[in-house]
Specification:
This protein is mainly β. It has one helix spanning 280-291; strands at residues 3-5, 8-13, 15-19, 23-29, 41-49, 59-64, 67-75, 78-82, 87-90, 95-99, 104-110, 117-125, 136-140, 147-149, 153-159, 161-162, 165-166, 177-183, 188-192, 199-211, 218-221, 224-228, 234-236, 239-262, 270-272, 275-277. Residues 33-124 form the Pirin N-terminal domain.
C-alpha cells in the first residue's frame, strides 16, 4: 500500500472580531472553521497589527476552566499574570503554555505602546478526566525551541517530532504536532501525519503555498487556514492509497505556515465563554465556583 499526502478539504479566512477589552483579531477555529471539525483544537485566534489601538487594551483578568491554552508570539511583547502567582513576559519567538484545568484567572496585557503585535493563541481541549486537574503555567524562551535548518527551509519544532527532533513543549495532554515552517520560493516540504485519525491543518501567515498530493493541490494564501482531510484511505488515479503525510510547495515568494495535528478526543463539548466542559451542569458549576472564589 503506497502513501500519499492528505488533501486539503477546506480553505478559509478567519472572521474579524474583538476580544478582551477590545483587541482586534481574526478568529479562525471557532469562526469559519467549527471546532468539532478539528477536535481537539477548540480555538485559533490570530492577532496582527501595527496600530496600538488594535491591541493596547489587552486582555484584563478573566477566568478559564477545562482547556489548555498555547500562545505563540511572532512580534511584540505581552505580560502574563495569574492568581496562582505566575508572571512572565511573552516575547518574539516565545511560547506560553497554560493548563487552565479546574480554574485559573489571568491577564495578558501588551508591554508596548507602539510597533507590531503579532501572534497566535490556540485552545486545546482537555479530556474529561483531566478537566479538574491542577492548573499550571510555563513560558518557553525562543532560543530553547529546536530548529531544523537547511539552505531552503527552517522548521521550528514547537511540539511533537520532525526529522528526529523533539519539540520543546511538553505537558499538552493531546500531544499535538506543532511546527512553524518557513520555505524559500518553490521549495518542497513533507511531514508525516502519525495516525490517519489525526485532525490536521495549516495556517499560512506569510506568502502562499500549495498543499496536498501532486495533481490535487490547493493554494493556501496569507492569513488563511487549510484543513486537511481525515481519511484512512483515498482513491487517486484509481489506486487506493493511505494519506499519511502532508506535502507542500512554496509559492514564488516563499511561504511561512504553522502545521498542527492531533488525535481527536471525541467527547461532548459544552462551552460558555472561557469555560469548556462536557455537560451543561459542569458549566453551571464552573460559574458558581468562579463566583464563590474557588478558582
Amino acid at each position: 500500500m503506497s502513501s500519499v499526502s492528505r488533501k486539503v478539504a477546506n480553505v478559509a479566512k478567519g472572521y474579524k472580531t474583538k476580544d478582551g477589552a477590545g483587541v482586534s483579531l481574526l478568529r479562525v477555529i471557532g469562526g469559519p472553521i467549527p471546532s468539532k471539525s478539528v477536535d481537539p483544537f477548540l480555538m485559533l485566534d490570530a492577532f496582527k497589527s501595527e496600530n496600538p489601538n488594535d491591541y493596547i487594551a489587552g486582555f484584563p483578568s478573566h477566568p478559564h476552566r477545562g482547556q489548555q491554552t498555547l500562545t505563540y508570539m511572532i512580534d511584540g511583547i505581552m505580560e502574563h499574570k495569574d492568581n496562582k502567582g505566575n508572571k512572565g513576559l511573552l516575547k518574539p519567538g516565545m511560547v506560553q503554555v497554560m493548563n487552565a484545568a479546574r480554574g485559573i484567572i489571568h491577564s495578558e496585557m501588551p508591554k508596548q505602546v507602539e510597533g507590531k503585535m503579532f501572534g497566535f493563541q490556540f485552545w486545546l481541549n482537555l479530556a474529561a478526566v483531566d478537566k479538574m486537574s491542577d492548573p499550571w503555567y510555563k513560558d518557553i524562551p525562543a532560543e530553547e525551541i529546536p530548529e531544523v535548518i537547511t539552505n531552503d527551509k527552517k522548521v521550528r519544532v514547537v511540539a511533537g517530532h520532525y526529522e528526529g527532533v523533539e519539540g520543546i513543549v511538553k505537558g499538552l495532554r493531546v500531544n499535538p504536532i506543532f511546527l512553524d515552517v518557513t520555505l524559500s520560493p518553490n521549495t518542497k516540504f513533507s511531514v508525516d501525519v502519525p495516525d490517519f485519525d489525526h485532525n490536521s491543518f495549516v495556517y499560512v501567515f506569510e506568502g502562499e503555498g500549495k498543499f496536498g498530493p501532486e495533481g490535487y493541490e490547493k493554494v493556501v494564501g496569507d492569513q488563511h487556514i487549510g484543513v486537511l482531510e481525515n481519511k484512512d484511505r483515498v482513491t487517486i488515479n484509481d489506486n487506493e492509497i493511505t494519506p499519511n503525510k502532508l506535502d507542500a510547495v512554496a509559492g514564488e515568494n516563499g511561504v511561512r505556515f504553522l502545521f498542527l495535528s492531533a488525535k481527536p478526543l471525541r467527547e461532548p463539548i459544552v462551552q460558555h465563554g472561557p469555560f469548556v466542559m462536557n455537560t451543561q451542569k459542569e458549566i453551571q458549576q464552573a460559574f458558581f465556583d468562579y463566583q464563590m472564589g474557588r478558582f
